Amino acid sequence: MFLCSCDQCRQITGSAFASNLFIASDGFNWLSGADEVATYQLPARDISKSFCRVCGSGVLWASGDGMKMIVPAGSLRGEPEVVKKYRIFISEQPSWSSCLDQVEACEGFPP
Predict the structure, then answer these.
(1) What is the pLDDT of residues 18-35, one digit of tens each?
(2) What span, in angstroms and rounded, lies between the C-alpha atoms of 56 and 72?
(3) CA geometry: angle 68, 31, 22, nearest 5 deg
(4) What is the DSSP letter of 7?
């Protein structure tokens, strides 16, 4: 799992970082709904944003070389089996997100 804080990932997610899993693309094919997927390719970068035109959910997309599928971790219904996690491009991380473990946590909206 890659937690990426690069400028482009923050822009396309609207968050402090993108949470993506990478899987091999060989053997992958859509069972249904592929015709409802829209993809925005960030110019001159190997970064895309794919989403369902019907519900707006983020969906996976192919890497520029076609060797991997990038899966937005938040789009999964269950907990993925993650072998290792990496925080990448931390030099581009915004200062407001550098110590999130110190921010008050709530089960839902705060009272």
Answers:
(1) 999 999 999 788 899 999
(2) 13
(3) 20
(4) H
Residues 70 and 64: their CA atoms lie apart, in Å, by: 10
Q: Identify which of 88, 76, 108, 109 has the alpha carbon closest to the alpha carbon of residue 18.
A: 88
The DSSP string of 31-70 is SS-GGGEEEEEPTTSS-EEEEETTT--EE-EE-TTSSEEE
CA distances (Å), origin 84, targets 7, 22, 27, 96, 104: 23, 11, 23, 25, 27
Cα distance between residue 99 and residue 50, in whole Å: 29
Distance CA 39, CA 100 (A): 30
Structure tokens at 10: 């923050």
Single-letter amino acid, residue 50: S
Per-residue pLDDT tens digits for 45-85? 777 889 999 999 999 988 888 899 999 998 898 888 899 99
DSSP category for residue 99 = T
